[in-house]
Amino acid sequence: MTLTPERNATEETPVPEGHVRLTIDGQVVDAPKGELLIRTCERLGIVVPRFCDHPLLDPAGACRQCLVEVEMGGRPMPKPQASCTMAVADGMVVKTQHTSERADKAQQGVMELLLINHPLDCPICDKGGECPLQNQAMAHGRSDSRFVETKRTFPKPLPISSQVLLDRERCVLCQRCTRFSEEIAGDPFIDLLERGAKQQIGIAEDQPFQSYFSGNTIQICPVGALTSAAYRFRSRPFDLRSTAGTCEHCSSGCDLRTDSRRDVVLRRLAGNDPEVNEEWLCDKGRFAFRYTGSAGRITRPMVRRADGTLTEASWTEALAVAAEGLLAARAAGGIGVLPGGRLTVEDAYAYAKFARVVAHTNDVDFRARPHSDEELEFLAAHVVGGTPEDSVTFTAIENAPAVLTVGTDPEEESGIVFLRLRKAYRKKGLRHFQVGPFTTYGAEKTGATTLHAVPGAEAAVVADPGGDVVAALEQPGSVILVGDRAAESPGLYSAVSALAARTGAAIGWLPRRAGDRGALEAGALPTLLPGGRPVTDAAARAELEQAWGAPVPATPGRDGDAILAAAANGTLSALVVGGVDPQDMADPTAAITALREVGFLVSLEMHTSAVTELADVVLPVAPDAQRSGTYVNWEGRHRPFGVALDATGVLPDCRVLDTLGVEMDADLFTQTPAAAAGELERLGSRRAGGAAPDHTAGQARRPGYGQAVLATSRQMIDDGSLQIDEPALAGTARRPYVKVNAATAERLALVEGEDATVRTARGAITLPVALTDLPDGVVWLPTCSPGSHVRPTLGVGHGDLVTVGPAGNGSAS
């Protein structure tokens, strides 16, 4: 499709192939066949008012505000036509309200009808000041109305979910919300009810608006009928300070806008970025921002005193104590660095450089989650150094004939990837295959074929997915998306590599956290230096030594689990930890033990946590709203953002580490994010080019009497640390269940809807039973949802054996 119509077309010039020639308001233009008339007008700069039309939704013609006068074959149509549903045609002559009194009168009449029942809520309406109805009523409406009857009223607001409120009397029945929910999100909980004059938007009494993308309906509602429970009546648009930003909740790197007032974030809206999130946000990205002002926010450095208490201190004292303790530890057993996966690429680079230049070690690992050596080999071979120009992108997913997803459920872990998969399925017939233990809600909505796999044995399924899957992936443009959960299944990364080599499909790595890809590029790993340079490459080390003016250790470091084990047994004398939640580690109990037993612990954190409770020195760092930086999303695309709130007195990780390094007689030159980014850019990046992993495929555990193999994964809205103080968001979380298939339920005496207990020697989790299409002998639990914190409670993970039985039944013990 062309980007702009041919404005200089004349009757004599030839019509380009695939185009038609028409006249709009006296301008002869060429437009692609099938293009909607309203789009052609838009690209000519001709404004046609509308409410129901949206470029990413299917045409509806519901509001009729976009009426124009149309002539075909020299004969005018008997009445004005909706330009949002009519395609351009050869020889068409169109007159908008700018050149046609008839079209202008029709639009004024429609506006008069739309305002019959609309209340005069403008002084209190959240949409006031940014409302299309206000603007178009002024531009295209009459100054008075012939309708004087009593307006229709409803009780208001109607809570259609815990975070979306509906004022039915404001609604103009444009159907944007219902079309978005059905077409884009695949969640048709909201719909038109009744008929005629009684028609209204609503939900079924027993089905609240449970969608991970419900906030988009608030943003695209053109009249303020849908409002946010968290934002309602809190501000007027013209009182807000808006700042462009990037979402910090997953690796998609969505464009967004942060609206604040008096240095408090009040709301976030989706930005418009066609290459990434188009105009959408998931609800976590839209609503989970109150952690910046939570009660547990750390704003002052803290030092542990001789009596064991942790008290506030000055920056000077805290940095001096931290430097003294780390210097002593470096001279003894050494220092381990655990940055975590929530960092900007600038901060991750500062941690990577701090480990080598200050701590004199390669013991650095951002992977604050279950991980493996196989994963390191996979990342070096297929991911590091990739860019949107030579890697899988959102656009590639949308255009792919087939996509295989492995080790991830996109709807739960990367919502915008899910929306692209659904769009490709609806619009282009994408064939989606998903390797997993059961058919998820997201798989159903993307038409996916589930390749059922017993936890721990996914590699065998990927190695032999069936002739149909292989044939589909052999089509040009096919994609394999692999998530970081693949690290929990031995041999799975190797199987993915082999399948990609066999079929020619491109590989995309889809980590869950926003900072993982940037930390990979920044070298926050024990085997990779910044820019994808292998630690074992002498030339690469020499290159960095010249740039840094300091030696780089030649021996590959320990991974995260080994760092914690060494800290626990005294081999390592100190840890520098940045934003890591021990509950996310493969063994949370072992992680907390390591933090407790290590000789000296420094925590860079913005919120109190299990780490800060044990730390010797706590150095507060700035949240995204109070710092600038760049996330690198899963595509390898850089997603910069600026400061949204007053940043006085708060420091980003890179500045804290630079100052701490100076106290230890080493300058990192990362005083600002811009300085860190500039140095990393000058170093450049390259494909590591390592050999593809070739590890033995894992075998499924065999459950004994009363046992099952555990499958576990996270839900989008759960007990994540960045979702605190968000009761409205938490109200839309999917209910956690113990999921089994019917045969397993019968064998274990479980009854659907009744409670079951999943137990190990360490603890137990009790939840209601839900039946689904899991393999026999497999039970699924959400990893980090209310009442279901799997690793801290049970001490096991994906693929391990657990005991399952009815709640209160001794057989489950």
From TrEMBL:
| EC number(s) reported in the record | 7.1.1.-
Every 4Fe-4S Mo/W bis-MGD-type domain range: 240-296
- Output the Pfam families linked to this UniProt entry: Fer2_4, Fer4_Nqo3, Molybdop_Fe4S4, Molybdopterin, Molydop_binding, NADH-G_4Fe-4S_3
2Fe-2S ferredoxin-type domain: which residues? 18-100
Q: Which GO terms describe its molecular function?
A: NADH dehydrogenase (quinone) (non-electrogenic) activity
> What superkingdom heads the lineage?
Bacteria
- Keyword annotations from UniProtKB, A to Z: 2Fe-2S, 4Fe-4S, Iron, Iron-sulfur, Metal-binding, NAD, Oxidoreductase, Quinone, Translocase
Q: Which cofactor does it need?
A: [4Fe-4S] cluster; [2Fe-2S] cluster
Q: Where is the 4Fe-4S His(Cys)3-ligated-type domain?
A: 102-141
The molecule here is called: NADH-quinone oxidoreductase
Q: Which organism is it from?
A: Pseudonocardia spirodelae
